[in-house]
């Protein structure tokens, strides 16, 4: 029997889901945070200027085109790593313009600080102490989603932090000692993002749901954006890239997440033990240092693969050399 508009087998009627707001880039940190607390996602119009986007694209296009030139189809067995999509992971290391555009943006830093700064109280002997932990960059990936790319399954990005969410009615006060969110993401449209060319879709209000509630396609809102608009989304909100049904449009999306700063090893082994030293260790020792993937989607290397495969090639990766056969034009 077809599902009526107001019914949903997961208990969240589409008509009762919150409305997603579009705010101007002059909105305050508090205004953006309020919308995120209500809907789990918000669109910010005219977030980046065309000149900055042009420069970001020029710096990153060669990396996107290199693999595409080698394999026009890029068929993926993994439905999460969508076919006909070229990704460039770690683009902050390859495009200084991009790193600074994201990480010096006061609105993004303000909002991500609000959601990701962790407050924690504990005993040290008889003394009750409180610590705060600032967020850190979780990832940076640019997606070039080509015609023919299918839907990415709806997912939460806090699966990477193995988060287990409980159902809540109202989002916690951001200055309290809560740990609701593992990460928060900023998607910037490098080209217009439409339902037809695969705009990110997400389920408004799903950031309040328990872990055992499955997402439904009928609940999704498509975050259509003009070039330069942005979408901020909580790690607990169900979302995914969508099918590109156009003949000739590329969906270009710059994406970066911030994570709670304690999702890492206590000692910064990557600074205390140079990679030139680690690369001479046996593979098993390299792995236990931290050069190994975990699932889902955790700790991938600079090319998106298991970092254990990259340790020996560290000089090649760290030089960030542009691929020699790269072209700078998008061709569908
Ligand atoms: O392609 C998109 O719009 C989003 C991609 C995404 O959510 C992911 O790869 O985790
Ligand atoms: Fe995602």
Automatic annotation (TrEMBL):
Plastid among the record's keywords? Answer: no
Q: Which InterPro entries match?
A: Phytyl_CoA_dOase-like
Taxonomically, which superkingdom?
Answer: Eukaryota
Give coiled-coil spans as residue ranges. Answer: none
UniProt-recorded Gene Ontology molecular function terms = dioxygenase activity; metal ion binding
Q: Which UniProt key words apply to this protein? A: Dioxygenase, Iron, Metal-binding, Oxidoreductase
Task: Kindly name one Pfam family recorded for this protein.
Answer: PhyH
Subunit structure of this chain's protein: Homodimer.
Q: What is this protein called?
A: Phytanoyl-CoA dioxygenase
Q: Which organism is it from?
A: Naematelia encephala
């Amino acid at each position: 029997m077809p599902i009526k508009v107001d019914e949903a087998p997961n208990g969240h009627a589409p008509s009762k889901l919150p409305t997603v707001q579009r705010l101007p880039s002059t909105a305050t940190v508090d205004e953006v945070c309020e919308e995120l607390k209500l809907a789990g996602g918000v669109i910010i119009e005219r977030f980046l200027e065309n000149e900055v986007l042009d420069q970001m694209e020029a710096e990153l296009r060669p990396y996107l085109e290199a693999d595409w030139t080698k394999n026009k189809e890029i068929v993926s067995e993994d439905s999460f790593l969508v076919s006909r999509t070229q990704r460039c992971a770690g683009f902050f290391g390859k495009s200084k313009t991009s790193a600074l555009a994201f990480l010096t943006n006061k609105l993004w830093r303000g909002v991500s600080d609000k959601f990701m700064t962790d407050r924690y109280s504990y005993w040290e002997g008889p003394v009750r102490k409180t610590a705060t932990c600032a967020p850190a960059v979780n990832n940076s990936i640019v997606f070039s989603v080509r015609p023919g790319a299918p839907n990415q399954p709806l997912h939460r990005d806090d699966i990477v932090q193995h988060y287990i969410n409980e159902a809540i009615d109202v989002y916690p006060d951001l200055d309290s000692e809560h740990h609701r969110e593992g990460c928060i993401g900023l998607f910037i449209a490098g080209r217009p993002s439409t339902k037809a060319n695969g705009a990110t879709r997400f389920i408004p209000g799903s950031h309040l749901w328990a872990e055992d509630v499955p997402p439904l396609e009928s609940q999704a809102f498509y975050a259509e954006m003009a070039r330069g608009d942005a979408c901020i989304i909580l790690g607990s909100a169900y979302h995914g890239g969508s099918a590109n049904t156009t003949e000739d449009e590329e969906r270009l999306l710059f994406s970066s997440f911030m994570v709670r700063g304690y999702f890492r090893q206590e000692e910064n082994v990557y600074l205390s033990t140079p990679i030139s030293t680690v690369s001479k260790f046996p593979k098993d020792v390299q792995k236990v240092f931290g050069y190994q993937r975990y699932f889902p989607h955790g700790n991938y290397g600079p090319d998106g693969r298991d970092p254990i495969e990259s340790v020996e090639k560290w000089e090649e990766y760290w030089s960030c050399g542009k691929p020699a056969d790269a072209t700078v034009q998008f061709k569908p």
